[in-house]
Design brief:
By secondary structure, this protein is of the alpha+beta class. About 40% of the residues lie in helices and about 10% in strands. Strands 5-4-3-6 form a four-stranded antiparallel β-sheet, with no helix packed on it. It has a three-stranded antiparallel β-sheet with strand order 8-7-12. The radius of gyration is 28 Å and the shape is globular. The structure holds zinc ion. The site of zinc ion has 8 residues, from α11.
Length: about 600
């Protein structure tokens, strides 16, 4: 049966797109996105109509919050708090108390969803307020955050609507003060990150129909981010139907073309990007980098702001990258990397694990000691075999170490997954292509460690990775996969393994698992080390002096640029030079590689 509101909303919408059932922010967004993609010509009218119905309902059916909306369900709340109080009375150490408090807090959140009323409905629909805010207002905060954002080992039994006791007020005062201060500071950090991200991405425009790569990233078929992109090798558009047909044929993953593996640096080709949200290819010349910068920057502000007004819950002390600060730590790679995991420096067997006199422990791999600080938990056992970059302890892997120990490709892969996860855990399911592009642009330069006979690369040069890749691929020979290739160097990139990577047994296995039969092998001598710079230094790796002037260290750029005869192309892919020069003929010769 159709309800009255369903009837009003669906007026003018073709039957196959009718909205049905309970609508909240999430389902409405999903539904409207589908209409925008399938029927862009109808979308503006439909959105207008949904808004009109919303405005009308708000006028006739206005929502107000009464006392009964903020009255706790005393029986359920007091039982939950009472149980927690009794358990805590028996506990003696803070860690166990905090664990019990966090358990009570999550039980409280579940209880909150059953508290019917107009305030709860606003939270549930996604229109206003967060479950955490509702819990604190109506039920009880249960536990407050102290210094370092860590939970305090004390139970808070009353809600804000009833009023806290003086002791409880003291406990929550620190958290409230910090959240207030965070709001004031909220725009500074994300603003800074946003400027850096923009300068890393602004020269990535759509440059040509197809760069010709057969490589891509291996994604699971149930990953929602692969639709509207192209499959590598076959160059088929990935649609829901195509995914279903692959699933029927018992496939579980697919090699997807990606801006991360596009060979057209600093641009991206149409095929590696895939369709835009209107289901079309971006036209050549569109600056996808700027769009990605927007998409990546905006949530960073939201992540800081969500700390405001108690939107965030207290959480246990764990080594994890969270929110804007987590993002900045990962891409900023500070010298002292908080909660850093200990990684194996080379392949070998764990020969011993012993307590260190200063606290912590020493893990020996062959003859090399690896010190694990007291706070970290050891994850390996004696006799276990490890590969370079293998985590010996819990904690966060430092991306610089991952790149050093496992190479450019694995470093990119790690950065991509970790950045995506930071956004995801803050409630932002960001389009993975934005992350892939950011990672490609930020981890794209290499330092030549050994030159080549023909003198193309000289030891010490800093060059874009793609130019080395082209050099190694040129003249590389195809070999069938097999044990004889172990130790040889890849002549092109495969999956996320960069050209020039020596093949280890592990790499060999994963290439075979991805369905590869042959690979190119190079015998050229040129070797390189990938350069992992903090994101804010990446725009300073190029020699386009006008773009560098738009970033930082302006004096450096002027002195070195003048001494080394740097230039800026007013028809290049970076918008800065053209903008300053006056934009003559800007974009008129796009198909000849002039912008
Ligand atoms: Zn491409």
């Amino acid at each position: 049966m159709t309800t009255f509101v369903e009837h009003l909303i669906n007026e003018g919408i073709p039957p196959e797109y009718h909205l049905k059932g309970t609508l909240d922010k999430k389902s409405l967004t999903k539904h409207l996105t589908r209409i925008a993609k399938d029927r862009p010509e109808l979308y503006p009218d439909i959105v207008q109509n949904v808004k009109k119905v919303g405005d009308m309902m708000a006028t006739f059916e206005g929502v107000s919050v009464g006392l009964d909306d903020i009255t706790p369900d005393y029986a359920a709340r007091d039982k939950l708090i009472g149980d927690a109080k009794r358990d805590i009375g028996k506990l003696t150490n803070d860690k166990a108390i905090i664990e019990r408090l966090l358990k009570a807090q999550s039980e409280g959140l579940a209880l909150g969803t059953r508290h019917k009323g107009s305030l709860q409905r606003q939270v549930e629909s996604g229109s206003r307020g967060k479950p955490g805010q509702f819990l604190k207002t109506v039920f009880s905060p249960v536990v407050a955050k102290g210094p370092g954002d860590l939970p305090l080992p004390y139970l808070i039994s009353k809600s804000y609507s009833e009023g806290l006791s003086p002791a409880e007020f003291w406990l929550t005062a620190g958290e409230s003060r910090r959240e207030l201060a965070q709001t004031q500071l909220a725009t500074a950090l994300p603003g800074d990150s946003s400027k850096v991200i923009t300068n890393v991405l602004n020269n990535s425009i759509i440059t040509k129909p197809d760069c010709g790569t057969t490589n891509g990233l291996d994604y699971r078929l149930d990953d929602s981010h692969i639709v509207d992109r192209y499959e590598a090798k076959t160059n088929k558009l990935i649609t829901d139907d195509y995914i279903r047909s692959l699933q029927k044929a018992k496939h579980s993953s697919i090699l997807v073309r990606s801006p991360m593996t596009c060979q057209d640096h600093p641009g991206v080709c149409q095929k590696c990007w895939g369709h835009n949200n209107e289901g079309q290819m971006h036209t050549i010349g569109v600056n996808v980098g700027m769009r990605s910068a927007q998409m990546l920057s905006e949530p960073l502000t939201q992540m800081v702001l969500s700390a405001k007004h108690g939107g965030q819950m207290a959480r246990a002390d764990e080594a994890k990258l969270v929110g804007t600060h987590g993002f900045r730590q990962l891409v900023g790679i500070p010298e002292i990397f908080k909660d850093q995991a200990v990684l194996a420096e080379h392949a070998g067997t764990v020969s011993s694990i012993s307590k260190s006199p200063q606290g912590g422990a020493t893990v020996m791999i062959g003859d090399t000691p690896h010190y694990v600080p007291p706070k970290r938990e050891i994850l390996v056992k004696k006799g276990e075999r490890v590969v370079p970059g293998f985590a010996l302890s819990d904690g966060i892997k430092n991306p610089r170490q991952v790149v050093e120990l496992q190479g450019l490709g694995s470093g990119r892969d790690y950065m991509k997954n970790t950045i995506y996860q930071i956004y995801k855990e803050s409630g932002v399911d960001i389009d993975k292509r934005h992350v892939e592009l950011l990672v490609r642009n930020s981890l794209n330069h290499v330092k030549v460690t050994e030159g080549d006979e023909d003198g193309k690369f000289i030891k010490g040069d800093i060059v874009p990775y793609n130019s080395v890749r082209e050099h190694l691929a040129d003249g590389a020979k195809s070999h069938p996969l097999g044990a004889s290739l172990i130790g040889k160097r890849l002549g092109d990139e495969y999956l996320h393994y960069a050209a020039g990577t020596p093949i280890t047994p592990e790499i060999h296995d994963s290439l075979r698992q991805a369905g590869l039969k042959t690979v190119l092998i190079t015998d050229k001598t040129a070797t390189y080390d990938p350069i992992m710079k903090p994101l804010e230094q990446v725009p300073l790796l190029g020699q386009d002096w006008v773009s560098r002037m738009a970033h930082r260290r302006i004096k450096d750029t002027l002195i070195r640029g003048a001494a080394e005869n740097w230039s800026s192309d007013i028809h290049g892919s970076s918008p800065y030079a053209a903008m300053i020069y006056g934009g003559q003929n800007f974009g008129s010769d796009i198909h000849k590689g002039h912008y």
